Each structure stands twice: as structure tokens, then as C-alpha cells.
């Protein structure tokens, strides 16, 4: 018997293929596992309180008691309206249903659930940008804040009228019925029958411009929201409607109107955790499999050991490079277009570049470490080719154009660090004097535009660190990214830190010696910002005795460090003079 495609797989593919295109529509069912009651459960609890106040026990059917006592069916909106005449009173009454007591907190109740955390992960990754919810609680906001993300929350008509356009929102939660701490929450039938024009217009935009993933919403009580959805005519993106059990009649009408694909689920937690797992699975698929990386490195080692295999090594390297360049310079990452550079989109692009670079940086480190010199041309020419200087014009986002040099910086770092390990100063000098073609078919010094601070503005990289500011974010990211590549060569973490910092210091000396900048500016890394012990070790080696990875003898064999005619000591003093001016010194 043939199997049908799991809707969760289809949805995961849609999210990965079009990040930010799908929005979420969440109802009270999303917070069910947190112990936050649904509207009907609030009704039953309020009836029990009402009965208790009249010294009556409504047994196991409080709604039946209410109907027999008052001659009508219990209704959430009417009951709230009759018990609390003002919005302020309703807010205070509802507050106890959403905020945990100390005992509830110890039990994990009224706190973000697995579903909230999975949604927060999807939003942090930029796969979901907009959430529309009928819930008053703040569980999703809490889950996002635990990841260093403060979302934009729209909970009233005036906030909707004054908000930044949806196009520029990164983490937006639209609470169509308000927030339980705001006295303007909507509860009664009259309040839920129609929205203020500003809120209605905002919801209409979401329905029109985004695909929808609906979860935990019964559609039973929310007349205005149903009307907005049903009259929307645009269906450019799909709608996925999840349901535990049979959807309500109202929900079926909306599902039919949107031609939504129904997805049977057992819980909101299970659905969103499953969706997140499948998205992560696709992310891993995009990255070269570790075995394929190790296979390429193993083949390179065999070819390096046998001079007769030099052609095979050349072909292997060029094939791997071609595949990586197809991603780096492919249509998914143009230097201009509709994707606006931001903290989130920058982080996404850097991670994608890293994924495509895994194999080639492994080969760069391997060849630089074990080659006897014959294959060095491969490394130098490839860095020059990939690091082609990007001159900006009015049609380009300069951020994207500059960031295109990042893969070449990765390749330069991998080969340069390995040359230090192998005690190959001649190779390091060649790498740091590599030249790249420009648009005018001239040659530009690669070290001039491949320095990490030149690749993109520092604050744009904070998304790589969950929004946390860093003194040298690109340097820190390169350090983290290259660690797995160098682990087979340098197992000790402290040794790896020294190796990384030594290369970055040599990079700074080469930049200074090349005369790229007339202002005395040099690219600095963590050695200047906070790893000062490593800096002392590096300088001691350059001025005096030998130390591991580098030293005076190594530096004297690197003409790149003194090409401006100054001595090593003079260039070290110039770097130190610049470092002393920095705010983090």
C-alpha cells in the first residue's frame, strides 16, 4: 500500500524554502498543557464560583445547573458580562487564570510549554515572523525573552495603527483580543463581534500576505476573526489547519473558505516539536554530511602522500570549490534584491555560507598542513578567485556585496592557521599577499578587503549570538566555526585559542605592513579585546624566544610582515598604538 506524504514534512519544506512567509494563528489550545484554561473551562469555573456564592453544589454538570437555574445556556461572554460590568473588573477576575502561584510555578504550570519554546525557536531562526493569537497570556513572549528576543506585541487598535509595517517586522505578536494586563481586552459577544478598523486592517494584511498555520483555535467564539478570514480572497500561500479531534462547525466553514489542509494532531506540543525537528533535519541535510567531509579530507591526504596523484588532488579540490561557489554566489544569496540586510537575515546568510564551506575549509587546512609546497598554488588562487573584490553601485545592498567576501576569509583563515601549525612561513606570506581580481580586471590585495571587520557592520552580526553585543563578533564567529575543522589537528582548546589569535595577529601585522590604510587602523581580534594573555605570548615570541605555533624565526621568514620597510618591532609598536586607542582596551 502506498503511503501519503506527512503534512508536517510538507510544512517543514515550505518553512525552509520560504522563511518568514508563514504566520501562525494560535488559539487557547496552544496553552492547554501549561494549565491555562480555555474559554469554556473559564465558563465552567465561573459557574462553580457563582454556585458556591449561592451555597449551591452544581455537581458534575455546572452548565446544566446554570441552564436550569437561569433559563438559558451558559455563555462565556454573557457570564463575564453579567459578573463584571467593566473591563477593569473582568481583567482582575481573569488575572488569576493566567499568572502562576508559587505552587503552580513549582509544578511547571502557567509557564511556557514545549509548543511555546518550539515556536520561539522557529521565530529566532527567522522561519516565522508573525503570530496572530486570541490568547491573553504572555507565555510566547516569555519563551522568546528566554532567547534574548523582545518581540513587538500589538494588543490594541492604537498600537496597530502606529506599528512599523509588517514587511520590516522580525518578531511580531498580534494579540487580537488584547493582553490580560490591559483593561481593553475583548471578551463579550459585543466586543468580539467586530474589531476596531486599525486592528481589522492589520489582521487582513496578515491573511493576505502570509501563509497560515492554525493551531489551538476552535473558531467557535470569535465572530470578527472568522469574518476577516472568510472574506479574504487571496490564497497565494497555503493554509495548514491543525486540529485535535473533529473541528467545530465554525472551524469547518473557515477551513472550506481558505481551502486549508487539515492536519490531525494529538497536542500542540507534539505538533510544534515535530515540526521543529523536521526543520532541523532539513538544515542538517543542507550541510555536507560529516562522512562526506571526512572522505574528501582522507582522499586529499592520500593524494598528498603520492606525487603521482597531484592531478586527482587538483580535480578533487576544484570540484569541491565549484560546489561551494554555486551556493555562495547562487540565486539564493544575491548581492541585491528583496531580502533586506538585518540582524536576522545576516545571521541566516552567514550560517548558510558556513554550511556550504565545510568541505572546502577542511581541504584548505589539510593541504596547508601536509603539502610540501607543490599544491600551494591551489589555495592561493582559490582565495583570490572567491575573494573577488565587490565594488558597490546603486543597485546593490552594500552589506550583501561586502559579505560575499566572507567565504574567502574562511578559506584564508583555515589555510593560514594550518601554515602556522606546519611551520610554513613562506605559505603564510603568500596567503597574506594574495591578490584578487576587481571588476575593472585589476588586482587588489586580498588582506585589504577580507579582514573580518570589513565584511559587515559589527551590530549586524549580533544575531549570531542571540542578540548579545560583541566587541569582535566576526572574529569570535570565525573562531567558533573553524574549531571543528582544527580539532583533529589541535585537540587542546587553549592551544587552539593561541593558534587562532596568533594568525589574527599576523593578519593585523600584514595589513599594517601592506599600507592598506593611511590612518594607522588595523583589524583586531579577541587578542586585543579580551584575550590579553595570548597577546603577551605572541609578542614575546616575535621579539625573543620561540613559542609554539610562531616566533621570531618564523616571522623573519615572512616578508609580508615587513614589506613596508619597518622592522617587526616597529610594526608591533604600531599595532599596540592603535590597540591602545580602542574603547574596549
User: How many H/I helical runs?
Assistant: 29
How would you describe the shape? elongated
pLDDT below 50 for ≥5 consecutive residues: which ranges? 391-395
Q: Compute the CA-based radius of gyration.
A: 30 Å
Number of domains: 3
Structural class: alpha/beta
Alpha-carbon distance between the two ends: 69 Å
- Main-sheet strand order equals 3-4-2-1-5-6-7
**Largest β-sheet summary:** 7 strands, parallel
Arithmetic mean of pLDDT: 85
Binned, the helix content reads: 40-55%
Strand content: 5-15%
Number of DSSP strand runs: 9
Give a topology summary.
Layout: H1 7-17, E1 22-26, H2 39-53, H3 62-70, H4 76-83, H5 87-95, H6 102-106, H7 114-124, E2 128-133, H8 139-145, E3 152-154, H9 157-162, E4 172-175, H10 189-192, H11 197-209, E5 211-215, H12 223-231, E6 239-243, H13 249-258, E7 261-264, H14 268-286, H15 290-304, H16 310-328, H17 343-370, H18 376-386, H19 398-403, H20 406-421, H21 425-432, E8 435-437, E9 443-445, H22 446-449, H23 452-455, H24 473-486, H25 493-513, H26 526-529, H27 532-543, H28 552-556, H29 568-579
Parallel strand pairs: 1-2, 1-5, 2-4, 3-4, 5-6, 6-7
Antiparallel strand pairs: 8-9
Helix pairs in contact: 1-14, 7-8, 7-14, 12-13, 15-16, 15-17, 16-17, 17-20, 17-24, 18-20, 20-21, 20-24, 20-25, 25-27, 25-29
